[in-house]
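Why does residue order matter? Because the sequence determines the fold. Keep that principle in mind as you read this record.
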Amino acid sequence: MGRTLQNTMINLGLQNACDEAVYQLGLDMEELEEIEEDAGLGNGGLGRLAACFLDSMATLGLAAYGYGIRYEYGIFNQKIRDGWQVEEADDWLRHGNPWEKARPEYMLPVHFYGRVEHGATGTKWVDTQVVLALPYDTPVPGYMNNTVNTMRLWSARAPNDFNLRDFNVGDYIQAVLDRNLAENISRVLYPNDNFFEGKELRLKQEYFVVAATLQDIIRRFKASKFGSTDSVRTVFDSFPDQVAIQLNDTHPAMAIPELMRIFVDIEKLPWNTAWDITKRTFAYTNHTVLPEALERWPVDLVEKLLPRHLQIIYEINQRHLDHIASLFPNDMDRLRRMSLIEEGGTKRINMAHLCIVGSHAVNGVAKIHSEIVKTQVFEDFAALEPEKFQNKTNGITPRRWLLLCNPGLAELIAEKIGEDYVRDLSQLTKLHEFVDDDLFIREVAKVKQENKVKFALYLEKEYKVKINPSSMFDVHVKRIHEYKRQLMNCLHIITMYNRIRRDPAKLFVPRTVIIGGKAAPGYHMAKMIIKLINAVAHVVNNDPVVGSKLKVIFLENYRVSLAEKVIPATDLSEQISTAGTEASGTGNMKFMLNGALTIGTMDGANVEMAEEAGEENLFIFGMRVEDVAELDKEGYNAQKYYNELPELQQAVDQIGSGFFSPQEPDLFKDVVNMLFHHDRFKVFADYEAYVKCQEKVSELYLNSKAWTKMVIRNIAAAGKFSSDRTIKEYARDIWHVEPSDLKIPLPNEPRDAVEDKTPNGTAA
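Structure:
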C-alpha cells in the first residue's frame, strides 16, 4: 500500500489546505510525509495491483472490501553491504499505525488440524486447534466522491485457554509462551515473488485469511435483507447475486473448498446446490505462467492441516473427472492433465486447476498473457469452457501514480485539458493536439528536468553519489528475477563501458543507469545478479576515463515510496523480460504516464502500450513469443551468440575472468555458467537487438525536441492503463455490478437526493 497520508489528502481534496496549515505552524509537509513508514504487505506487482484496485473501486463507488493479512513484519528492508543484499526485518508497526482501527467485536475463530467424523447428522470437523482472527480496518477513500471503503486485515491471536483447556497438569508458563505458535501466523510476509515455497506456515496463512474472510462475508450477508428469509432452503439462493469474490492468484484458493464446507457441513445444503452457488460466487485471476510460481500443495500436508478440505477437494475432483470422462471416454491422458491432483512422486494439489474448476470466470492480466493462458497453460480447460476465459488488462491508479508523485506534470496537463482526466484518464488523448505546440514541448521537458534535478539531489543526500542531471536517466526497477533480465541490462552497461574505453574521444550520450529491486532471500542467482551490478558499478564509477559519461547506481530498498520519487525522474524505462514471461507488468504503465520512453520486448502490457501509442513511439526489440517457441524447438545454443558477437564475448569474459571482482576472480563463475548452459530466458539471444535498440535511444536523446514529442505521444496514449478502466471491466463482465460516478452527499447533507440511484448488488 505504501504511505497513506498524501494519498488521503489528495482523495479528500485537502492537500492544499493541509500544506498551508502545516506551513503556518512552521513545519514542512514534505518532511512530515517522509516520516511515515511504507505499508509493504505484499510482493512486487501483484500486491501493488491490489492497492491500485482498492483506490479505483472506491473512486467508482463500488461497495467493495479488500481482505488480507496484517503482517507484523512486511517485505524485508534491503540493505546493500559490500555490494551484497542483506535483509532486515520491516518493523513497520514500531511507532504504531494511525490509519488502522482494531475491531475486536468482529473477531472470528479459525480451525486447524483435527479429524473428520461422519455421523447421521452429517460430517463434522472435530478436535481442532483454534486461532482467533482479529480484524483491523483501514479506510480507503475514493477520489473526491465522499466514498470511503474498507480494507480489512486479519491478525492472529491465541484464545485465552490456548494450551490450557486440555487435562493440562503441565507447565502454565510454557502454555502462555506457546501462544506465540498460534500468533506466528500473521508474523511475517513470505518474500517470494513468482515463486512457490510449500511451507506449512504459508499454507496456514492462506487458509487463515480465507476462513476469517468467508465467515465475515456470510455474517454480513445474513445480516442484510437478502439473507433473512423464512424458507431455510432458499437462504443462500441470492448469495452469488449479492456477493462476488475475486481470487487474486491462487493464494486464496482454499476459499473454494472452505465455502463448500460451510454450505454442506454447517448450512446443510445439498452438494449440487452448494457447488452451483460457489462457482457463481468465485472468479479467478491468473498472474503468472512460470511453472515454478504455480502452487502445488502436497496432499499429506493438506491432510494434516485441513483434513475436511482435502476430502472436499477429492469430491470436487471426482465429479470434475467424471464429467471429463463422459465427454472424452478413454482419454486417460486428458484426465491426468486436467485432474486437481497430480500423481507421481509426492501427490500434490494443483491450486490453479482448483480455481478454474471452482470459478465462473478466469482471466489473465494482459491480452498476450490471456492468450497464453488459453492456448498453452490451461488449454484443456479452455477447450472445455471457452466462455469462462477472459482478459482484463491491468492498470494503475492515476491518483498515486500521477497527481501524488508528479504534481508538476499533473498540473501542466490540467492547464491544457482540464482536471476531469483524473477520473477519466482516456481524456489524455486530447494531448495529441499539443504534440507540435512548441511552448508545451518546452514545458513538458522542463517538468522532467526539474524532477531529475530533485531526484539527483536525493541520490546525493542518500547515497553520496554525484550525478549529472542532464544525462539520460535509464531506469530498471522491479523485483530481481532471471526472467526480468537485469543481467541483459548489465551486459549493456559493460558494453557501453568498453566502448568508452576503446574510444574516449568519440561522442557518447551520457547516461545514469539506475537499477533497483529486491531479491527473494533464498534466490541465490538473483542475489548474485545484485552483487554483479554493484561490482560493475564500482569499476565504472571509479574509472577516470569514463568520468561523468556513464554512472551506474543500484537503488537500495526499492519500495512504493521510492518508486514515487524515481519514476517521475526517468527518461528511459527498461521492460526487457523474455517474451511470454511477464504476465502484464504495471511499472511499465507508471513510467509511460510520467513521461518516460520505453525500451522493451513484445511482452505483457508492453504489447498494448505499443498498440495504443504506435510501435514507432516505443523502442521495441527482440524475439516475439513465436520466436522464443521456435528457438526452444531447435534448441537454444548460447555459445553460438558468444562466438558471433565480439562485444558480447568481451563482456562475458570480463565477468568470468574477475575483471569486476579482482579480489575473487571466480566470484561470478555461477552466473557465466548459467548464461551458457541453463539460461531459460535466453539473454544472449536478445543481446544484439537490445544493444542496437539502445543506440537508437541515444540517437533520439540527442534531439531533445523529437524526444519530448515522443514523450507527449506516449502520455496521450496512456489513458487505457488506468485501473479505473480495469475495474469497470471486472465490474461489468465478472462481478455484474454497475460502477457509479455519483458523488454521494456528505454525512451532514440530506441523503434522499441520491437514495433511489444506488446501484443494485453488493460487495466485490
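The longest strand covers residues 129-141.
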